[in-house]
Design goal:
The complex is a heterodimer of chains A (112) and B (239). Chain A has strands at residues 9-15, 20-26, 33-43, 49-57, 60-69, 74-78, 86-89, 92-98, 103-111. With 112 residues, chain A is mostly beta strands. Chain A has a single domain (12-111), classed as Hypothetical Protein Tm1070, Chain: A. In chain A, a hairpin with a 2-residue loop joins strand 4 (49-57) and strand 5 (60-69). The N and C termini of chain A lie close together (8 Å). In chain B, 7% of the residues lie in helices and 36% in strands. In chain B, the strands form 2 sheets. In chain B, strands 1, 2, 5, 8, 10, 11 and 12 form a 7-stranded mixed sheet that branches. A 5-stranded antiparallel sheet of chain B has the order 4-3-9-6-7, with no helix packed on it. Chain B has one domain (12-238). Chain B is mostly beta strands and 239 residues long. The chains are: A mainly beta (112), B mainly beta (239). The A-B interface holds A 1-4, 6-7, 9, 24, 26-28, 30-31, 111 and B 62-63, 101-104, 138, 141-142, 166-169.
């Protein structure tokens, strides 16, 4: 299946110390999996911060990804569509929580 | 032009007839034993047919559907039917494909309006939302519609489309209708028609309305040109 730019979408959240689901964060059960090929993360705090991404089925955490950011640090990664950074299986959702406020998270993805 | 059909993923722009080419439209008249009615035409003139639906379409929630309804000037089921051919132009037909954006939008077609198109021979007629008889945008992209969505419309043939959002997010879809309008000269000479059926004279044969049996209305002006294709006729032609 050829992925067109119009098939791609963003998952995003302004993340504080309360865990939140990213917008469009649930992979529909009708899909095989979600591919994340782009990441933009910005720590808006003046101190180092840790972002915890969790991949969950309902509320059961299946995977945890820890990302440490410097004060005002940014991670900006964009990969080709056929070389995604992260795969999320059908029926899972992605949530995020920070060790201190606030982190902007934008993930670019497509479903297949 | 070949007498065989085009590949289903061929761009519709490569499947259109040019001026001075022959086409034949095939209709079902009986299921058992099978009988068909054919109409043969020469394309006298053609002109590009192009229309896009962008902001005209409503957003569709995940898993939800829109339509089926006629393709209107103001949106699906709104305004005047864009594909309703004027009765003064009985020998004009439209031949086009439908490009779909994004790929997770599924397209259903009803031709005539109350008959959902199907390639299946099962008891239940297809319905909007079924996981069959739809064309996903990946198979007929907006920028390059394919034969998967090939459609013929003539005066008295109604045509409805429906959409389903198969993604997990709200989508406002876009559609591109791309093809050509033809002005046709009907062909009546039986010896020429026989050669087209035998494949001796090039002709593009086009199935109207999918494989479900349906009753159809034709322009009155076409009726003298009907050709019946039965088992006996096929056997006669193959001799």
């Amino acid at each position: 299946m050829k992925i067109d730019p119009s098939d791609c979408f963003d998952m995003e959240a302004d993340v504080g110390t309360v865990k939140v689901m990213l917008s469009n964060g649930l992979v529909p059960i009708t899909k095989f999996e979600r591919k994340v090929y782009g990441v933009f993360i910005n720590n808006r705090a003046g101190t180092a911060n840790t972002l915890t991404l969790t991949i969950e089925k309902d509320t059961t955490v299946e995977r945890t990804i820890l990302i440490t950011l410097e004060a005002y640090g940014t991670i900006d990664v964009n990969r080709p569509l056929d070389s995604p950074i992260l795969s999320i299986r059908s029926g899972r959702n992605i949530k995020a929580v920070a060790s201190s406020p606030s982190i902007t998270v934008v993930l670019n993805a497509y479903d297949q | 032009m070949e007498t065989t059909s085009e590949g289903l993923l061929t761009p519709i722009t490569e499947a259109l007839a040019k001026e001075n080419f022959n086409i034949s439209l095939i209709f079902p008249t009986r299921v058992k034993p099978p009988e068909y009615e054919l109409y043969f035409f020469r394309v006298a003139r053609r002109y590009p047919l192009h229309m896009t639906y962008d902001s005209e379409l409503k957003s569709i929630e995940p898993g939800e559907t829109l339509g089926p309804n006629f393709v209107g000037t103001a949106g699906l089921g709104e305004g005047k039917d864009v594909f309703e051919i004027w009765e003064e132009r009985p020998f004009t037909i439209y031949h086009f494909g439908i490009g779909i954006r994004p790929g997770e939008i599924w397209l259903y077609r009803s031709i005539p309006a109350d008959v959902m198109q199907s390639g299946w021979a099962i008891e239940l007629p297809p319905r909007m939302g079924d996981k069959r008889d739809y064309v996903p945008g990946h198979l007929s992209p907006y920028d390059n519609p394919t034969v998967m969505t090939e459609t013929i419309v003539y005066h008295k043939l109604s045509f409805h489309v429906g959409l389903r959002n198969d993604s997990g997010r709200v989508i406002r879809p876009s559609l591109r209708f791309l093809g050509a309008g033809y002005e046709l000269i009907p062909i009546a000479a039986r010896e020429i028609i026989d050669k087209m059926i035998r494949g001796q004279i090039p002709c593009r044969f086009l199935t109207i309305g999918g494989l479900r049996f349906f009753t159809y209305n034709l322009p009155d002006e076409w009726k003298p040109y009907a050709v019946s294709l039965t088992q006996a006729e096929v056997e006669r032609l193959l001799r």
